[in-house]
Each structure stands twice: as C-alpha cells, then as structure tokens.
C-alpha cells in the first residue's frame, strides 16, 4: 500500500505481540548491574531504554533500522527532478516502518505533508510577535508548544478514546507536526534575518526540503540537496540522547506530540547537544580571526590548547556513545569534497580533523577524540550563504522531528508507560553503600 498509516496499522498488532512475548518470556531476567558511578555519571552505559528506529554502534555510528547511514543515503529514493540526494520523507518512512520506501511511497509522503503543512494563523502571529532577543531555538519551542492547540490526540483523549487506539491520533499529530516544521522554521528564519519577508505558502510541486529552502529564500539546487542530506543525517540517534529522551519522557505522560517535541527542542538547544553546531562555527571564526584562514599546524595546535586551558571543550569533538569519527561527519565531508572542496573553511575543517584528535588523546580523559556531526555542518551552510549561525540548531531541530516523531508513534502504539525512575537522597545512598 502507498499509505503510511495503513502500513503501520498492519505492523502494530505484530509488534505488540512481540513485546508481550518478550515481557512474558524474559521479564525477570537481568540486563546488567547498576553502579553508583553510573548513577552519578549521567546514566552512561546502562541498558535502560528500548528504541527500534535506530541504534548507535560505538564504532560504526548510527544505523537506521539496521542500515548504516551510508547505505541509507545511497538507497533512499530521489523524488525531485535532478536531485542527487534522497529525501528526508523517505527517511521518515524507513524510520517508522523499518522498510526502505519505494519512490511512490516517498512521494506519497511529500504530497501528504504538503497538504498538512499550513501553519495556523495564531502560531504565525506568535512568531511575528517575538522580540529579536529571543533565540531561534526558544522561538521553535514556543511555536511547537502553541501548536498543541491542533492536537487530535488531545481531543480524542478528552472524548475517552481507548488506549489501543491512542497511536492512531498520535500518528495524525506527528504527521501534522512534521509537515508544519519547514514553514515554522522558515518563518523564524525570515523574521529574524529577512525582516519578515518571504513566502509562507507550501508549493505542492516541491518536496519538504525544497519548500523549506524556497521559503527561506534559497534557490540553489545544490543547497537544496545539501539540506536533503542534512535532514536525513540528523533525523535520529537512538532514544537516549537529550532531545530524543526529553521527547519520550514528556510523551510518556501522554502530553501531545507538540508539547513533547517542544521539550525535546529545549534540550537540543543546549551547547553540549545541538547548539554545538553554532558553537563550532563561532569557535572556528574566532580562530581564523586570531591566526588567519591558512594557519600552520603549530598555530592550530596552540590555539586548540588555549581553548582547553581556558576550561572550555572543543566544540564538535567527542561523543557520549561514539568512539570513532561520526559517519554523519564523513558523509557531510563527502558532500563537501564533491561540491566545494576548495572552500577555505572546508579545507580548514578537514585539517582540524587530522590535528584535534591527537591533541584530545593527550588529555587522557576524552573518551572519543574524533569529530561528531556538528563539526562539519556549519562550514557547508556558510558556503551556500546561510551565514546566521544562531539559526543552525533550528535546522537540526527540523531534521530531528522525523526521528523523535517516529519514536513517539511507536512508543504509544506499544503502550510505553509513564517514565518514573526512583531517586534516592545522597544520605540514604551513603548509608546503603556503607552497609554493603
Ligand atoms: N573537548 C575537551 N574536553 C572534552 C571534549 C572536547 N571536545 N569531549 C570530552 N571532553 C572531556 C569532558 O569534558 C570530560 O572532562 P571532565 O572529566 O573534566 O569533566 C572528559 O573529557 C570525559 O568526557 P567524555 O566521557 O569523553 O564525554 P561525555 O560523554 O561526558 O560528553 C560530550 C560527551 C559530547 C558532551 C563531550 O564530548 C563534549 O562536551 N563535546 C563538545 C561539545 C559537542 O561537540 N557536543 C555535540 C555532541 C553531538 C550532539 O549531541 O549534537
């Protein structure tokens, strides 16, 4: 079938049965031990969550439904005439159903999102009233939480819909939210940087990324391809990262997908998470100001060491789970090598990739000295003229809606309960552990 909801409706009963079986057969088995250092260390390394959309291998990076990103990028259907990159619509289909869509299925999603994507007037007015001091990410949070007024789930819940049917309404909200994300983000962009100019109408002939770029005032076909790739790469990264987990946590209270996405975006806005793409560019520009755009290796090394001495992290490097160069970094680098390898900033990023890991290794404490997804995106955006770095994390958010909404649909379809870990006072723990 060409309709995503029908495909999912067939899968839901099977997956529910699988979960029931898993719980009945293995519910009492142990997954590991919890040490105090895990509890005090941000819960790193504990097998605590279940998520089928994607999986991060420490060395190979992210897998979408068992496929490496390299294969995903290669196999996604191309839907727009002449485009070289697969669409995020296709990635959403893959993340939700577990199967790579055919061209017709991916195109069907584009059509459906173009129908669902009109941003209500009250949300536009809210965005238009924003003071320019409000960071674009804070604006994105405000817009997505106000859209809660659209929630079909909230209305159905009030009418007492049965639990087994929750997911059908959550699906509707998730689809509407994904559809509205490019126009919402474009309005934030145009208000902040173009004095509010720019179209707010979706063109049914364009795909999700094409519409977004046009609404922001970008027409270059290569740039639209870059955004397709960017949106595919940033969509999903398991469910334990801050933005995905915040979305799941809030969703587990049965708050609407709009509110839970807003919570996820509040997390993405942090400098240790999604804001790192903005931080990378600020750091890079400060470095260029100090040592020029064609520095010697020694000068770079000294500059990086100064950053570290100042008690700061090197943005774009390190990861909580990954232990190798992030394939999302490599795929962006592949794009750069094909499209803009002579760009000065691109060259610099490639040189840093060789130098920074060696410096971080010497610190002896950095678990992963290699670049992550955020180390590259900024210079590519700069190359195509999207220079407003305060906006970069919004692009990450536009992409991330795909992964976290795929996760949310499945969490409700499988009846994931409200999350409520138990906390203990430090005094209780001191006593408890002394007696051990
Ligand atoms: N520069 C300097 N020091 C770093 C570092 C970096 N890039 N990455 C890790 N470290 C340090 C940590 O600060 C920590 O030091 P302390 O013990 O003194 O506090 C030590 O190395 C051990 O940390 P870790 O186990 O390697 O890393 P964590 O899992 O705690 O944190 C992350 C992971 C991403 C927050 C961290 O590597 C970091 O701050 N990186 C820079 C910011 C960044 O690029 N974030 C984007 C990540 C991708 C994303 O989510 O978007």
Automatic annotation (TrEMBL):
<dbReference type="InterPro" id="IPR036969">
    <property type="entry name" value="Citrate_synthase_sf"/>
</dbReference>
<comment type="pathway">
    <text>Carbohydrate metabolism; tricarboxylic acid cycle; isocitrate from oxaloacetate: step 1/2.</text>
</comment>
<keyword id="KW-0816">Tricarboxylic acid cycle</keyword>
<comment type="subunit">
    <text>Homodimer.</text>
</comment>
<dbReference type="InterPro" id="IPR016143">
    <property type="entry name" value="Citrate_synth-like_sm_a-sub"/>
</dbReference>
<dbReference type="Pfam" id="PF00285">
    <property type="entry name" value="Citrate_synt"/>
</dbReference>
<dbReference type="GO" id="GO:0046912">
    <property type="term" value="F:acyltransferase activity, acyl groups converted into alkyl on transfer"/>
</dbReference>
<protein>
    <recommendedName>
        <fullName>Citrate synthase</fullName>
    </recommendedName>
</protein>
<dbReference type="InterPro" id="IPR019810">
    <property type="entry name" value="Citrate_synthase_AS"/>
</dbReference>
<dbReference type="GO" id="GO:0006099">
    <property type="term" value="P:tricarboxylic acid cycle"/>
</dbReference>
<dbReference type="InterPro" id="IPR016142">
    <property type="entry name" value="Citrate_synth-like_lrg_a-sub"/>
</dbReference>
<keyword id="KW-0808">Transferase</keyword>
<dbReference type="GO" id="GO:0005759">
    <property type="term" value="C:mitochondrial matrix"/>
</dbReference>
<dbReference type="GO" id="GO:0005975">
    <property type="term" value="P:carbohydrate metabolic process"/>
</dbReference>
<dbReference type="InterPro" id="IPR002020">
    <property type="entry name" value="Citrate_synthase"/>
</dbReference>
<keyword id="KW-0012">Acyltransferase</keyword>
<comment type="similarity">
    <text>Belongs to the citrate synthase family.</text>
</comment>
């Amino acid at each position: 079938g060409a309709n995503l909801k029908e495909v999912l409706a067939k899968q839901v009963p099977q997956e529910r049965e699988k979960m029931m079986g898993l719980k009945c057969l293995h519910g009492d088995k142990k997954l590991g031990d919890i040490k105090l250092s895990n509890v005090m260390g941000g819960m790193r390394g504990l097998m605590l969550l279940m998520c089928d959309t994607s999986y991060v291998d420490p060395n190979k990076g992210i897998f979408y439904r068992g496929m490496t990103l390299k294969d995903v990028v290669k196999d996604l259907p191309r839907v727009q005439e002449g485009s070289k990159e697969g669409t995020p619509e296709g990635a959403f289909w893959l993340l939700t159903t577990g199967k790579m869509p055919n061209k017709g299925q991916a195109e069907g999603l584009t059509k459906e999102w173009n129908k669902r994507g009109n941003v209500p007037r009250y949300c536009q007015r809210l965005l238009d009233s924003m003071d320019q001091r409000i960071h674009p990410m804070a604006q994105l949070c405000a817009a997505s939480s106000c859209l809660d007024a659209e929630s079909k789930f909230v209305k159905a819940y009030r009418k007492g819909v049965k639990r087994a049917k929750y997911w059908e309404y959550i699906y509707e909200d998730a689809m509407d939210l994904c559809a509205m994300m490019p126009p919402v983000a474009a309005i934030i962009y145009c208000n902040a940087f173009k004095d509010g100019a720019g179209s707010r109408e979706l063109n049914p002939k364009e795909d999700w990324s094409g519409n977004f770029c046009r609404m922001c005032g970008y027409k270059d076909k290569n740039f639209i391809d870059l955004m397709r790739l960017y949106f595919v790469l940033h969509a999903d990264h398991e469910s334990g990262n801050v933005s995905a987990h915040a979305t799941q946590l809030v969703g587990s209270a049965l708050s609407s997908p709009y509110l839970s996405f807003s919570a996820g975006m509040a997390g993405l806005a942090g400098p240790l998470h999604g804001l790192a793409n903005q931080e990378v560019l600020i750091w890079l520009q400060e470095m260029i100001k100090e040592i020029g755009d064609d520095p010697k290796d020694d000068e770079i090394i000294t500059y990086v060491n100064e950053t570290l001495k100042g008690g700061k992290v090197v943005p774009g490097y390190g990861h909580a789970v990954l232990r190798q160069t992030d394939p999302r970094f490599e795929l962006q680098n592949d794009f750069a090598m094909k499209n803009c390898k002579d760009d000065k900033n691109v060259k610099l990023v490639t040189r840093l990739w060789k130098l920074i890991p060696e410096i971080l290794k010497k610190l002896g404490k950095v678990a992963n000295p290699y670049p992550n997804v955020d180390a590259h995106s900024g210079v590519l955006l700069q190359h195509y003229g999207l220079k407003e770095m305060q906006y970069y994390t919004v692009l990450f958010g536009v992409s991330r809606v795909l992964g976290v909404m795929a996760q949310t649909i499945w969490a409700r379809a499988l009846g994931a309960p409200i999350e409520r870990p138990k906390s203990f006072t430090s005094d209780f723990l001191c006593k408890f552990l002394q007696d051990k």
